[in-house]
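Throughout our pipeline, every protein is held as a single compact record rather than as scattered files. The record that follows is passed on verbatim for readers who wish to inspect the format.
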Amino acid sequence: MAAKRFIRGLTSPWSLGFSGFGLAYGLYHIWDSTQSGTKYDLYEDLAGKTYIVTGATSGIGQATAEELAKRNARVIMACRNRDKCVQVRRDIVLSTRNKQVYCRQCDLEDFDSIRAFVQKLSKGKFELDRIDGVVHNAATMSGERQVNKEGIEKTLAVNHLGSFLLTGLIMEKLLAQTNPVRIVFLNSNVIDRNCDINFDDLNAEHMKKYDGYDVYKHSKLAAALFARELSDRTKGTNVSVLVADPGRTKSNLSAQMDGQTFFLSRWLLKIVSFGMGERRTEKAVRPVLYALADPETAGESGIFIDRERKSQPWNEVVLDNLKREKLWNISEAWTHFAAHLKQLKEDLGEAASAMSDSPEAASTITRTKTWKTLWL
């Protein structure tokens, strides 16, 4: 009798339910462990160092900002939505007990906003005494073609041109420092999938039907071309450039795409992404931290780090010197770089002159011919 009751207990709905839950959780844990990649942690104490992270209110950008704050760094969250940034910043401060986390508005599709951001961190009460790293994380993907106030397609503006302008306007400040600086671009292996730079339709004006994913893919290729060219131009300076691929990651990047607007297709995409090894942001941030602050990557430049933190080869398009130079020249023209630089110099006034005339800047300029020949 007791044996029958025991068997009935084992086969009861509650028992089967708990057993099924335990089995499912165990399988998920095994799957998650295999998708997370090899174990890694950054053990460096980053006290006294300053890092700028774009797009730091969600996804990998938020995870990067929090991981840096945990290691006592000063973190500048460069974000489009200041209200959202304030909320995320509060959570990071409470979690890490590091109050040196700051919100600064910087909308990468708005070139005036980028110049204002650089101006604030170069002069006045928000001036930074040093910058040790810049993480170009912000990215967007849209289901329909939109343009910024300059008439430039927004995906290209945010994913490449905004980073180009921000880097160019801040470069003189970086070169004037004595400490090493790492500029890290987040990218993806999607640029290896039947992808080339289309100079005839860089602004996505002549597509028969706007394809948000295709435009996104080409904008990331443009960013990779820029990163590789920048690494070549900064050789012999205190600035190094690295590209990190976090792998397929859970994020809201594709939230505006057509497939995400319908309930059923959204869940089907989640199932597909799960099966393809989508990683959580706390795991995906590992190659970013490795590129940004790990002693092993000190002095490295011009490398493309994969999700396992190993150097992977560039594709042929990125290695094409003529395409890199052509894109660089177009980027200067479309961002009105010279005009923004001139306006920044006028706004900074004496601060800009002092930065250019410092002994550290003079030493750097000697090593790189001149800052203007490096960029322009």
